[in-house]
Design brief:
Blueprint: H1 21-28, E1 35-38, H2 45-52, E2 56-61, H3 67-76, E3 81-85, H4 91-94, E4 103-107, H5 112-116, H6 141-147, H7 150-161, H8 166-177, H9 185-196, H10 207-217, H11 220-234, E5 240-245, H12 248-258, E6 281-282, H13 292-297, E7 305-311
Parallel strand pairs: 1-2, 1-4, 2-3, 4-5
Antiparallel strand pairs: 5-7, 6-7
Helix pairs in contact: 7-8, 7-10, 8-9, 11-12
EC number: 2.1.1.199
Subcellular location: Cytoplasm
Function: Specifically methylates the N4 position of cytidine in position 1402 (C1402) of 16S rRNA.
Length: 333
């Protein structure tokens, strides 16, 4: 899946800065001699910090543009850093030949370098092709915007972006594309702004719609769920998993993954209590958010949340989407 969901600030936002870095390092401490999988390598911020703290790192990313960052760490930390091209949803298979693993870190956010590269089509603040594909393969955002019927498009924007004005936006998009296909990011952003307006001080009106399209293009919720269960299969008793998310839909999935009872039906106190299944994750830490000092340094961290837990000795579960609160697009096949 690569990195995603970091909110945009301005066209002049700085280089990618790993969020909640001190908290992530603390989640795996002590790091000396440990073997950590960085499942969402990006620009390598977490990998570098883990390596500097004495760990060995196996990094994974499907974005071809990360190669220079991986090459730099290979040169600097020869023997302790390995890069594997692929998606973190397959992290257990991708790292099978690299021995036992002590921890996995997943940063479920689009990196600043992706936002800042206009040609990637992630940003509603920069002119570029309406693309949004992490790997550069498959269906693009332009394909969805120009190909979906109004109802299907509205349902997608609502389910994956929590956009309350999704139907009006979809109507404006369908009307606009009757004249000519919508091909660029700024063109789509202008249509959305025309549809729902913009109040001073509010987030850009295209924020939620761009989030929804990016999630759909890259099957990000599927990737997230598959990646969480892959980490559960990979880690043995005592292994640690740390996950950073950037919006409520992702955080809900991670929260319920660590504690399945959060997503289960409430039990009546008037009925016999059923026995819950064995816990796969223990010592699940309270959710951590960035402090004021970090937010002043890095405004893009403002919606980030870190959740971490320790693997128990219970056998890994089969992949299961139900109970995790994964959004579903109504009417989708």
């Amino acid at each position: 899946m690569g990195k995603r969901s970091v909110p945009e600030t301005s066209p002049n936002a700085g280089p990618h800065i790993p969020v909640l870095l001190d908290e992530v390092l603390a989640a795996f401490a002590p790091l000396e001699g440990k073997r950590i999988v960085d499942g969402t390598f990006g620009a390598g911020g977490y990998s570098r910090a883990l390596l500097q703290a004495g760990a060995s790192v196996i990094a994974i990313d499907r974005d071809p543009s990360v190669k220079p960052f991986a090459d730099a760490l290979l040169a600097e930390f020869s023997g302790r850093f390995t890069f594997v091209a692929g998606t973190f949803s397959e992290l257990d298979a991708l790292t099978a030949e690299h021995g036992s693993i002590d921890g996995v870190v997943l940063d479920i956010g689009v990196s600043s370098m992706q936002l800042d590269e206009a040609e990637r089509g992630f940003s509603f603040m920069r002119e570029g092709p309406l693309d949004m594909r992490m790997s550069g393969e498959g269906e693009s955002a332009a394909d969805l915007v120009n190909g979906l019927e109004a109802e299907a498009l509205a349902n997608l924007l609502y389910a994956f972006g929590e956009e309350r004005k999704s139907r009006r936006i979809a109507q404006f998009i369908v009307a606009a594309r009757e004249t000519a296909p919508i091909e660029t990011t700024l063109e789509l952003a202008r249509i959305i702004e025309k549809a729902i307006g913009r109040k001073p001080g509010d987030a850009h009106p295209a924020t939620r719609s761009f989030q929804a399209l990016r999630i759909a293009v890259n099957a990000e919720f599927d990737q997230l769920v598959e990646g969480l269960f892959a980490a559960e299969r990979l880690l043995g008793e005592g292994g640690r998993l740390a996950v950073i998310t950037f919006h409520s839909l992702e955080d809900r999935i991670v929260k319920r993954f660590f504690d399945p009872e959060k997503g289960g039906p409430a039990q009546s106190r008037h009925l016999p209590q059923t026995q819950g299944e064995a816990l796969r994750w223990i010592d699940v830490a309270k959710a951590r958010k960035p402090g004021e000092a970090e937010l002043s340094r890095n405004p893009r961290a403002r919606s980030s949340i870190l959740r971490a837990g320790t693997r128990s000795d219970a056998p890994a579960r089969a992949v299961k989407f139900t109970g995790l609160g994964v959004p579903v697009v109504r009417g989708a096949a």
